[in-house]
TrEMBL record:
Pfam families: DUF7704 (PF24803). The chain crosses the membrane at residues 7-28, 48-67, 79-99, 119-142. Keywords: Membrane, Transmembrane, Transmembrane helix. Residues 2-139 form the DUF7704 domain. It comes from the Eukaryota. This is DUF7704 domain-containing protein. It comes from Pseudomassariella vexata.
């Protein structure tokens, strides 16, 4: 049994890798639709395609770390904190791009969102909040690596 609480396991082993992989596929296969969803103030042109290829690479890296690396180091809270801390940096940048495109008034007012805006904002901010909570130690065991039998390794 993992020392990482189940809600974090569900978010970082399943939800986030799925969203990151789907986002990467959309960035590669339909970047115009991704622009419409996440940056509605910007018009897509084919000249932007290389930027979306870069974005897809980043999202696939995060999907890999969530789905593979965090599973391999399932009981090492320190590694989880480092990986999720790096992902926070990316999420803050992506969230800032949403705010830049939508404006604070729109971003902070769910009554103004349509289904696409709501999904984009919630699927970004939700995992970001979970990462911040994990890194801050909310509901997380102390910084120690446990052996197979649950004993603290020195």
């Amino acid at each position: 049994m993992s020392t990482i609480p189940l809600p974090y396991l569900l978010v970082f082993h399943y939800v986030e890798p799925l969203f990151a992989t789907l986002g990467a596929l959309q960035a590669l296969l339909s970047p115009g639709a991704l622009v419409h969803m996440s940056l509605p103030s910007i018009s897509y042109t084919p000249a932007l395609r290389p930027l979306f290829t870069q974005l897809a690479g980043s999202w696939l890296m995060f999907a890999f770390h969530d789905a593979v690396t965090l599973r391999i180091y399932r009981d090492d809270v320190r590694i989880w904190r480092h990986i999720l801390g790096a992902a926070i940096l990316s999420d803050v940048g992506y969230t800032a791009s949403l705010v830049q495109s939508m404006g604070w008034e729109w971003f902070l007012n769910p009554l103004r969102w349509d289904l696409v805006n709501g999904f984009t904002i919630l699927s970004t901010v939700g995992p970001l909040v979970a990462k911040v909570l994990f890194v801050l130690g909310v509901g997380v065991p102390g910084d120690r690596k446990l052996g197979k039998k649950g004993r603290k390794k020195e």
